[in-house]
Amino acid sequence: MVALAKKITKATEKLEAYMKSENLPLPSFDADAPADYPPLPADVQQSRQDIIHAAKELSLLAHGPREAVRWGIWEFLDVLALTAVNHYGLAKLVPIDSTITLAELQTKTPLDPINLARLVRLAMTNGIFREPSPGVIAHTSASRVLAEDENMQSWIGFNGEDIFPASAHVLQALKAYPEATSLTRTGFQFAFDTVDKEPMFATFGKDPDRARRMGRAMASLTGGEGYEPSYFVDVEKGGYDFSDLDAAGGTFVDVGGSHGFICVDLAARYRNMKFVVQDLQKTVDSAPKPLCADPQVAERITLMAHDFFTEQPIKGADVYYFRWIIHNYSTPYAVRILQNLIPALKPGARIIINDHCLREPGQENPWDERVMRRMDVVMLALLNAQERTEAEFRELFAAASDGFVFKGVTRAKGCRMSVIEAVWQPDRAAGAGGQAAGAAADNAAATAAPAAVTEEEAAATAAPVAASAEPKSEEAK
Ligand SMILES: C[S@@+](CC[C@H](N)C(=O)[O-])C[C@H]1O[C@@H](n2cnc3c(N)ncnc32)[C@H](O)[C@@H]1O
């Protein structure tokens, strides 16, 4: 424990020394403290990570195993309190620079005094609000974020009111359908009484407020540390180098690309390449026109409606790119998406997946490991989908067709997302010589048969997703 405490001291001294040397405000619970760290040099960022991890370990040791487990399970009550604070908009009702009594706050909400007080006071144990004198509430730096950051409000709402109930029903779903591949038999459907009726996206498609909340929540997530598009676009940050394709005036297809913000960034950097952004009709219809102000960029990007559960219509492109797509699907669906490319692929075409790629346990820095493992379980709760390891991506491509030659996984430093790449070599596909698609279909029949994707399911998955994607795209503007 002392070793951990020393590690924390050393790392904290380094972090503070850096902040002071740069004249940056020090972290604090005060309402006017900064909500975020600025980008830090790698070694200082490492110190910050060390503090987080060592402090957690020290806390667990100080609790002792039995007490840590006993009370660890109660974290869902913290989620409940935060969800309630967010749901009733309490943070927006507390003045930023002064205080409010609980009695007055109560007059502004439908909550009765007892429930208001107990939920707020539980939230306080996690640094959300403070009570400078009995019955008087003031902001902390965290509650101020809840008051001012709309995407964060959506993030809390989506997590607390959609993912939390879905998670609570995962065991029920697993007991009933242990294979856990169907989009209509997840914890989400058990929570919201839609088992075998519709996938989550269809439910959201019927409820624009809920869809918008999810879209904004995604914007909050992907606007956070480690997910910036620049990690893919900027070669200087370890991004993918498309210089060869640019020189040849190649074509890049962003499948499920929303409103094309990745292509806009790429087209600004590469001035010869052409881009096609594919998404569902509804998303295409809601895209800004033109996609961006620079005509040289906008005129090289075509937005088109395409359902990736049908055959790829852009033949002979150089790259087919999937960002935050494949992790939304269990293997039978993901195999189907890859196979739908095959009739369009020319030899040497690259398939690039931009998703999390799980490393062996303990290989990740502990913060990222926790985020990714949690995300993996979120995918289970909502979609029976999953984050994948390198081996699982390799198997996914192999299940789709032998013609996909797996190239490996790369990841820019500081980024949580990986670039997973395969190249199409039709001569490697079983029954090559114009038979690639057929061979792939046979291959898939063998691998995906146990949990085949029905047309009905695929259709139900597809159409309404656009609604949920729109707000995300709006944020991306
Ligand atoms: C999680 S978002 C990812 C968007 C974008 N690639 C990104 O990186 O932010 C999933 C996207 O897939 C689109 N989508 C869902 N089902 C689809 C389908 N069957 N065909 C085409 N696009 C689909 C959604 O509309 C949405 O834009």
- Which structural class best describes the helix and strand composition? alpha/beta
The CATH top-level class label of the largest domain? Alpha Beta
Low-confidence region ranges? 433-477
Radius of gyration: 24 Å
What is the count of distinct domains? 4
Classify the oligomer.
single chain
Strand content: 5-15%
Q: What do we call the CATH homologous superfamily of the largest domain?
A: Vaccinia Virus protein VP39
What is the helix content?
Answer: 40-55%
| Main sheet record | 8 strands, mixed
CATH topology of the largest domain: Rossmann fold
Region (Disordered): 432-477
GO molecular function: O-methyltransferase activity
Domain O-methyltransferase C-terminal: 251-400
Pfam family, one: Methyltransf_2
Topology diagram in text:
Blueprint: H1 2-21, H2 42-63, H3 65-72, H4 75-87, H5 90-93, E1 99-101, H6 102-107, H7 113-124, E2 130-133, E3 136-138, H8 141-148, H9 150-168, H10 170-176, H11 187-192, H12 200-205, H13 208-222, H14 230-233, H15 243-247, E4 251-255, H16 261-269, E5 274-279, H17 281-285, H18 295-298, E6 301-305, E7 319-323, H19 331-339, E8 350-358, H20 366-383, E9 388-389, H21 390-400, E10 404-410, E11 417-424, H22 436-448, H23 455-462, H24 465-476
Parallel strand pairs: 4-5, 4-7, 5-6, 7-8, 8-9
Antiparallel strand pairs: 1-3, 2-3, 8-11, 10-11
Keywords: Methyltransferase, S-adenosyl-L-methionine, Transferase
InterPro entries: COMT-like, COMT_C, SAM-dependent_MTases_sf, WH-like_DNA-bd_sf, WH_DNA-bd_sf
Biased composition (Low complexity): 437-470
Structure at a glance:
With 477 residues, the chain is of the alpha/beta class. The protein has helices spanning 2-21, 42-63, 65-72, 75-87, 90-93, 102-107, 113-124, 141-148, 150-168, 170-176, 187-192, 200-205, 208-222, 230-233, 243-247, 261-269, 281-285, 295-298, 331-339, 366-383, 390-400, 436-448, 455-462, 465-476; strands spanning 99-101, 130-133, 136-138, 251-255, 274-279, 301-305, 319-323, 350-358, 388-389, 404-410, 417-424. Helix 1 packs antiparallel against helix 2 (42-63), helix 4 (75-87) crosses helix 7 (113-124) and helix 13 crosses helix 24.
